[in-house]
Amino acid sequence: MSGASTLVQRFTSLFIIRRDQPELVIAQARALSWQVPLMYVVVLGNAYALAASHLGVAPLWLNMGLPTVLTVVCAFRSVGWLRIGGEDVDPDQAARMLSSTLKTSGVLAALFAGWSLSLYPYGDAYQRGHVAFYMAITVIACIFCLMHLRGAAILVTVIVLGSMVAFFAATGEPVFRAMAANIVVVSAVMIVILLTQYREFADLVRSRVSLLQKAEEARRLSDENDRLANLDSLTGLPNRRRYFAELDARVDAARQSGGGFVVGVIDLDDFKPINDAFGHATGDRLLTEVGRRLTAFDGPPLLAARLGGDEFGLIIDAVLEPDALRKLGRDLCATLNATYDLRGVRAQVGASIGFCPFPSGGETSEQLFERADYALYHAKQSIKGTAVVFDERHEAAIRDMAVVEHSLRHADLESEMSVHFQPLVDIVGQRTVALEALARWTSPDIGPISPDVFIRAAERSGQIVEITRLLVAKALREMRAWPMDVRVSINLSARDIASMENVQRLLDIVRESCVAPHRIDFEITETAIVCDFDQARDALAAFHALGVRTALDDFGTGHSSLSHLRLLPLDKLKIDASFVSDIEHNPASEDIVRTVLQLGRNLRMECVVEGVETEAQRDRVAALGATVMQGYHFARPMPADAVPGYLTGEAVSSARRRRARAADAAEWGGDFCREAG
Questions:
Q1: Is the model's pLDDT at 559 over the cut of 60?
Q2: Is the preceding omega at residue 444 within 30 degrees of 0, hence cis?
Q3: How far apart are CA 490 and CA 487, in angstroms?
Q4: Are strands 572-575 and 549-555 parallel, antiparallel or unpaired?
């Protein structure tokens, strides 16, 4: 029973329209859209040829009437199929046409077969042979034309051949019986071939669908990879790669059109403290919100991209005068400066912006970005939270910097670089306890260069490490002429401690100098710490292991946190001069200095106050508890060969003060004795 049931299921499946395979249904409809009309042409042509051979023999209504009616029906069906072939067909429409053809094919087959057999009694042997020939050739044509709708092909074959075999078997004519048998055999073979061809056709459609799906998946993956390669995964903004590709395209387009645009670079102010205080998750949410605000900014059309960290790039599609650009910058800064609500954390950051317009500011994408970045650097150095537009003054500064960098690369640093020293004075003991080593460079080509200028150039070119090593070696050589209780302070850059190889080279210089390591203070800035905290901690630990003291320079102006003071092996804090310059008029600066001094005492760290230039500042800082100070009030930086004389003169003055105090004490004692006597 199960075998019979399976055969029945397989047979009935031949007549099912596979709506679950829309691609196959559409492919069948496409193929039949021209095959079905062609089949009707063949069937009707053969029918009218048979009718012509029976003119004057069979009744006219039978001979021509029924073919005329069937012609109208076939024409109507042909128009429907031709319409499908000329337009985009959807699966539902295709399935309806296939289902309709499956139903009508049986009816039309029965009508044409019945009509042709009804002519048999009216003809002679030739005309009867024509009837048999018509039915045979027509069913073969239908099988071919309906090969993509196997149910219809089988239905037509069964109806036509069934009626033909039954009819000719009833006539008793051996020739017609043999002819019917021949047609059955040929048709059976053709049906088998049809079924095989249909399976291959269906497999081909499925294979094509699979290939298209794989191609679509490959395209989707390619698009996704392209999206991932060009978008920042955190903010959803274009990333650095996409930004520079867009910048190149804008430059090319603007050159051709003669238009203009503006390149901008944004750097968030005070983002690092928020990241450290509340964690990276909060920092990520803040960056995401910054990206959202930039995207939603109500102003000229702009493309915002995240370049990395807390740096963002802008391309503004507008030609703006400098004043309008500065106003736009102020609006952007205000937008980014508004308070951020970050899942229970309220935070606030500022933003500094550098702008460079095309074509007045630069002609290539590299120039535009570098100059916008320079304008950003200028903004952060002068007044944070503002926008700076690159102009002629910055262009002149860049040219000067290029000259400095060129001269620095070709300089004989050993002979051209010298060391000056500025004292750190203990106001209680009224003596110099240390001197800070400061690099000075006089180029034979362009003369003396400001330390701020050539240090920045050295950091840009990577020569700062070489200069630091030279400075350390020269400073330690000069120390041999100093008293043993006087130390030296030497500034290190972030690059100097960026690797343990650099650190080890500095330690080697210390060992080779024969100077006691405890007389050396290496000063690092807060920026050097935040660049790579773990590396900075390892570097300071290596200095401490040798006995070298370490100090945190310019404390209060960078991004270090109290946890850094707790985790780093530091011996000294240097309070930045910016807090001293207005200490007489700004209570906040006084409070900051007082707090840091108390912090240093609590952490058992020596505190040095920088930038003391007047007696009033000295007295105010001293009243807050400071004992070690540095600044022009005590001494300006001096050449190395002037240090021994300075220290000797200080010692003489100190001795004179001690003798004067002793004489005053002796005189007071004598007076006391006389009065007592």
A1: no
A2: no
A3: 10
A4: parallel
186-224 pLDDT per residue, tens: 888 888 887 788 788 878 878 887 888 888 888 888 767
- Confirm if 77 and 104 have CB atoms less than 8 A apart: yes
What single DSSP character describes residue 231?
B
What CATH number has the domain spanning 413-640? 3.20.20.450
pLDDT, tens digit, for every residue of 219-259?
888 767 777 778 888 888 999 999 999 999 999 999 998 88
User: Tokens 């970050």 sit at which residue?
Assistant: 342
Residue 294 CB-density burial (10 A; 0-12 exposed, 13-18 middle, 19+ buried):
buried
Distances (CA, A) of 462 to 285, 399, 429, 440: 34, 19, 41, 18
Residue spans of the domains in the chain: they are 2-213, 240-390, 413-640
Angle at 130 between CA 127 and CA 134, to 5 degrees: 145
What is the rounded distance in angstroms from the CA atom of residue 497 to the CA atom of residue 536? 6
User: Which residues in 51-90 are b (16+ Cβ under 10 Å) and which e?
Assistant: bebbeeebeeeebbebbeebeeebeebbeebeebbeeebe
Per-residue pLDDT of 22-31, as tens digits, reads 888 888 788 8
Output the pLDDT for position 614: 92
Between CA 95 and CA 98 the distance in angstroms is 5
Determine the pLDDT at residue 673. Answer: 44
Quick one: average pLDDT of 519-544? 86
Distance CA 129, CA 120 (A): 9
pLDDT tens for residues 628-664? 999 999 999 999 999 999 999 888 877 676 666 666 6
d(CA 349, CA 341): 12
Question: What is the Cα–Cα distance from 7 to 14, expressed in whole angstroms?
Answer: 11
Nearest to 117 by CA among 176, 73, 175: 176
Q: Which of 118, 112, 119, 130 is nearest to 71 (CA)?
A: 112
- DSSP label of 318: S
514: nearest Cα among 553, 484, 554, 549? 484
**CA–CA gap between residue 37 and residue 275 (Å, rounded):** 75
pLDDT at 423 over 90: yes
The Cα 442–Cα 449 span in angstroms is 6
- Which residues neighbour 549 within 8 Å (Cβ) at sequence distance 6 or greater? 487, 518, 520, 521, 522, 543, 571, 572
Domain 240-390 has CATH 3.30.70.270: yes
Tens of pLDDT, residues 135-158: 888 888 888 888 888 888 888 888
Scored b (16 or more CB within 10 A) or e, 310-333 reads bbbbbbbebbbeeeebbebbeebb
Distance of CA 212 to the CA centre of its chain: 30
